[in-house]
């Protein structure tokens, strides 16, 4: 025990296998435990980085998909706008055609009325001519 104390004073110690060590057995054990904890911490950190990396990939894919859908929606909206404009233009053309046909109908109606009056006048003239004879 006295030899152990002398060695201890010199900073030398025996471990559980009676090997001579520079570190106290308790400090050596704590160092080994700390090394294991550090190794576990590094492993967990690496695993965490992998998880974060795959999460970032998923988020990137979702962002790309969302952008793609947004572009499709913009394309569809623009197509719809152009279809609406085409329909409006067609409607205006048809309204103009209707107005033109109404005017033509009115001219024909007036012409018909005039021809009916002429026919009536001629019939009256013929009747008078026949009755004079």
TrEMBL record:
It holds the Pfam family IFT20. One of its GO terms (biological process) is protein localization to cilium. Keywords: Cell projection, Coiled coil. It is found in: Cell projection, Cilium. One of its GO terms (cellular component) is centrosome. Its main location: other. Signal peptide: none annotated. The keyword Coiled coil applies. InterPro entries: FT20. PANTHER family: INTRAFLAGELLAR TRANSPORT PROTEIN 20 HOMOLOG. This is IFT20 protein. The lineage of its organism: Eukaryota, Metazoa, Chordata, Craniata, Vertebrata.
């Amino acid at each position: 025990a006295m030899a152990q104390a002398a060695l201890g004073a010199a900073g030398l110690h025996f471990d559980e296998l009676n090997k001579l060590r520079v570190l106290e057995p308790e400090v050596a054990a704590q160092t080994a435990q700390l090394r294991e904890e550090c190794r576990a911490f590094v492993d967990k950190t690496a695993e965490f980085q992998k998880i974060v990396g795959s999460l970032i990939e998923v988020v990137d894919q979702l962002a790309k998909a969302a952008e793609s859908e947004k572009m499709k929606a913009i394309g569809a909206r623009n197509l719809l706008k152009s279809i609406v404009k085409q329909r409006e233009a067609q409607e205006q053309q048809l309204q103009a055609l209707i107005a033109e046909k109404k005017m033509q109908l009115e001219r024909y109606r007036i012409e018909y009325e005039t021809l009916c009056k002429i026919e009536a006048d001629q019939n009256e003239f013929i009747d008078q001519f026949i009755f004079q004879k």
